[in-house]
Amino acid sequence: MTFIAKQCHVSLTTVLRVLKSVESQLPQQLKPRSFPEVLMVDEFRSHASYEDKMSFICADGETGELVDILPSRKLDKIIPYFNRSPLEEREKVKFLVTDMNAAYFQLTKNVFPTAKLIIDRFHIVKHLNTAFNDFRVREMKRLITNKKKSKANKLKSNWKLLLKNQTNISISEFKTWRSFPSPKYHLLTESMVIDRLLSFSSELKEAYDIFHLLMYHFRNKDDRSFFELLKNLPDSLDTQFRDKIENLISYEEGIRNALKYNFSNGKIEAKNTHIKTLKRVSYGFNSFTNMRIRIFLINGLIKIK
């Protein structure tokens, strides 16, 4: 605010007054409104509201246009806001795109009865990656306990290789590896390095095979094979790893729709990044209203005359 005042050669009070003058152009949260056919919902850390540290944001899933920002992400605040609009308006929402926050799933039951739930694909992949990485770290700790720190270090330094898409793993390009130095090890391909890493632990190899088979079905949008594998995991699979990936079964409807339709939360995640940048250059916000005005301004949805 102070920087804007200096740039425009006016007082800080004038800047605040001009911002307040456009507040009437903001969506009125106490009045009914219409919603897009594809609605993306998410939250971001605002610290500008006395109601909640996390604020709620929703946007058009097709155009990316911001719909509104609420001071709290809690359902007891969100549901009444949406329910102020008549049912025929809410029934226009055909798809609700969200992350794996189960609270938002209630919106399809209580607010948008005709909407299909879609879970953002990025968060599904992130969940699988985290489950496998957590297991790898536990195997590293086990190796260290068994006085095999060298093997644990190799798993640590090559963790990205274990997550790499198997179709992109090189089987013909030989090169040196810092974790497999010469002369003990000759030139190795990525495939050869992975084989050596998985030889350290049969449990890790089994988890690796399951993880990449799930990712294969996911990339090919084969929801039938994806859930068939999830529901028939081998008993020998590590218990903690299995529990984490089996958790995806509770999101079955949203995941199946994510593989069927191309909508994602990418546009709203980009807006969250812009908001984080705005907060950083503004040194935070004490007023939720001022923050909301600034966000709508940078999105070109309100104009200062």
Outline the structure in words.
There is one protein chain. This protein has helices spanning 2-8, 12-21, 75-83, 87-90, 106-110, 121-145, 149-157, 159-163, 190-198, 202-219, 223-230, 239-246, 252-260, 266-281, 288-298; strands at 38-45, 54-60, 66-70, 95-98, 116-119. It starts with a helix and ends in a 7-residue tail after the last helix. The mean pLDDT is 91. Strands 3-2-1-4-5 form a five-stranded mixed sheet. Helices cover 50% and strands 9% of the residues. It has two domains: 2-120 and 264-298, Ribonuclease H-like superfamily/Ribonuclease H (Nucleotidyltransferase, domain 5, 2-Layer Sandwich); 122-251, no CATH class. Strand 2 and strand 3 (66-70) form a beta hairpin. With 305 residues, the protein is α/β, with parallel strands linked by helices.
Write the layout of secondary structure elements.
Elements: H1 2-8, H2 12-21, E1 38-45, E2 54-60, E3 66-70, H3 75-83, H4 87-90, E4 95-98, H5 106-110, E5 116-119, H6 121-145, H7 149-157, H8 159-163, H9 190-198, H10 202-219, H11 223-230, H12 239-246, H13 252-260, H14 266-281, H15 288-298
Parallel strand pairs: 1-4, 4-5
Antiparallel strand pairs: 1-2, 2-3
Helix pairs in contact: 6-7, 6-10, 6-12, 10-11
CATH superfamily of the largest domain: Ribonuclease H-like superfamily/Ribonuclease H
N-end to C-end Cα span:
18 Å
Find the structural class using helix and strand composition. alpha/beta
Q: What sort of overall outline do the alpha carbons produce when their principal axes are compared? A: globular
The whole-angstrom Rg is 25 Å
**In what order do the strands lie side by side in the largest sheet?**
3-2-1-4-5
H/E order of the elements? HHEEEHHEHEHHHHHHHHHH
Strand % is 5-15%
| CATH top level label of the largest domain | Alpha Beta
Q: What's the pLDDT, averaged over the residues?
A: 91
Number of helices: 15
The count of strands amounts to 5
Given as residue ranges, the uncertain stretches (5+ residues, pLDDT < 50) are none
Number of domains: 2
Helix content: 40-55%
So, CATH architecture of the largest domain? 2-Layer Sandwich
Biggest β-sheet, characterized?
5 strands, mixed
Organism: Enterococcus faecalis (Streptococcus faecalis)
InterPro entries: Transpos_ISL3, Transposase_DDE
Domain Transposase IS204/IS1001/IS1096/IS1165 DDE: 39-295
Protein name: Transposase
